[in-house]
Design a protein that fits this description.
Layout lengths: L10 E4 L2 E4 L2 E18 L3 E7 L2 E7 L7 E7 L3 E2 L3 H8 L11 E12 L2 E10 L2 E16 L5 E12 L21 E12 L2
Antiparallel strand pairs: 1-2, 3-4, 3-5, 3-12, 4-7, 5-6, 6-8, 8-9, 9-10, 10-11, 11-12
Length: about 190
Amino acid sequence: MSVPTTLTSPVRSLAGVTLPAPGAWAIDPGHADVAFVGRHMVFTKVRGRFVDVSGTVTIAEDPRDSALEVVIGMASVESGLNARDEHLRSAELFDVENYPTATFRSRSVDWHGTSGTVDGDLTIHGVTRRVPLAVTYEGYAKDPWGGERAVFSASTSVNREDFGLTWNMALEAGGLLVSKEISIEISVETVLQR
């Protein structure tokens, strides 16, 4: 992967679309949202998010040669209810004492225009599984302090039991207290590193 040493513009036109220029774009933890949605008692959607998110998007000359690496502090989970957050952090679920971080490391990128699929290794609770992220480049902005920002969104869905997160309770009327299928929604601002 080649990254230029001098950069004249933080964006470029490639195949008729505007994309970030090659280089390392660091995730801004203050403007990173990694959220998840699961079902409670079959019907109700419960949302949560992680606020400790860091990493780097390395954009290559050919977008298909780009790379993504993200680290999530699992203890930073917030779901709007302290008792639920403590349960999520406990040994029954995330077990943050033994598994303080989750990671995502890209393995391949299939990119067309302003969107694509980033396949990578997602590690949660000490278990690694290959997961595809549907990624979209949302745009570019220069911040008031001179930083060059590229914004990305992504989504995927995982079965939490694939990562050893198997705690659950059967409901009297049938079904499970917490869904196995979890949707993940991501929005991040990245800052070009010079």
